[in-house]
Each structure stands twice: as C-alpha cells, then as structure tokens.
Amino acid sequence: MITTIAIVLILLLATILYVEHTFKEVTTDLVPKELISTLEHEDEKEDTHKKYGTFNYDRLLEMGLSDEDAVGFVHELIPQIDEQIVLLDEAIKIPDIEKMERLTHSIKGSSTTIGEGGISKLLIDYNTYLKAGDDIDVIQAFQDDLKVELSKLKNQFQAQQQAIEA
C-alpha cells in the first residue's frame, strides 16, 4: 500500500512538473518578449522616491563629522557619479555588462560609505543586478533612475549647503 501511494505521488509530481514546464513554454512562445520583459520588471517603473527613499549622511555624523564636513563629502561624491554616468551611458550602448558592473561598483562603494537610502540604495540594486542580469531594458531603467536620484541628491544638498552657509 505504501508503495502504491508513493507511485501515485511520484506520478502526480511528474504531471505537475510537466504541465508547469509546458505552460511556461507555451506562454513564452505566444507572448512577445518585450511584453514579458515589461511584465517581469513592472516594478522598475515605480517612482524612484518610493523605491529608494531619501539619501542621508547620518553615517558621517555618527563618525563625528560636522554637518558642514558631511555635506562637503557629499559634494565630492556628486561629480564622481556625474563622470561615471557618462561612462555607463557609453557602456550601455556597446553593451559591456562587465564594465557597467565595475563602474557601478566603484560609485556604490563611495556612496554607501558616505550615506544610505536614495542613490546609495539604487546603486546597491543596480550593481547587484549587473552581477547576474543582462536585460538591457532593465539596465536602462536603472540608468534612468540613477540620473533621477543624482538630480534629487544635487537639489537636496544644494539646499543643505545654502542652509549651512546662512
């Protein structure tokens, strides 16, 4: 009796796996690749503020830096990211995933050392994706988000710099 139950369970499992595999093949054959990519990465189109939050440099303040010094570190980070964005745009055109991974890794390290949230969180996600992913549409979405987050960072710290100087 136990043998019969085991055989029935194995057959049931085999049937489920077969149907699942067949369904996957049928749906991916019938649905255009662009639509599958869009559906799989729908969350990439969210507002970046909801996804990544606001950058903060509390880590620098906890290390004993003054507000003025912390903002200075952030202002040094911004041109580095600007330069890397240009290089990333060039690497996307080729596309050179390895180069993109190296570039995002370097600015991810700098940004996460200084702070968290916002551009730091985005760069962690972007770099992590590049280690295993190669969908150029997803990469372009991350690149677009990086430009948005950099613009937000510039605005945020320009206001803070003006407040410190006042």
Descriptive overview:
With 166 residues, the protein is mainly alpha-helical. The chain has a single domain (46-165), classed as HPT domain (Four Helix Bundle (Hemerythrin (Met), subunit A), Up-down Bundle), CATH 1.20.120.160. 82% of the residues lie in helices and 0% in strands. The chain is built from eight helices and no strands. Helix 5 (67-93) packs antiparallel against helix 8 (136-165) and helix 6 runs antiparallel to helix 7. The protein is elongated and about 45 Å long. The N and C termini lie far apart (85 Å). Mean pLDDT is 77; it is low at 17-46.
Describe this protein with a few key phrases.
about 80% helix; 8 helices; mainly alpha; single chain; Four Helix Bundle (Hemerythrin (Met), subunit A)
Biggest β-sheet, characterized?
Answer: none
- The percent range for strand residues is under 5%
**Structural class by helix and strand composition:** mainly alpha
Low-confidence stretches: 17-46
**Number of helical elements:** 8
Provide the CATH architecture. Answer: Up-down Bundle
CATH fold annotation: Four Helix Bundle (Hemerythrin (Met), subunit A)
* Count of discrete domains: 1
The coarse overall form would be: elongated
How widely separated are the two ends?
85 Å
Mind telling me the C-alpha Rg? Answer: 23 Å
SS elements, strand count: 0
Class in CATH? Mainly Alpha
Helix percentage range: over 70%
Note the topology.
Blueprint: H1 2-30, H2 33-40, H3 48-52, H4 58-62, H5 67-93, H6 97-114, H7 119-132, H8 136-165
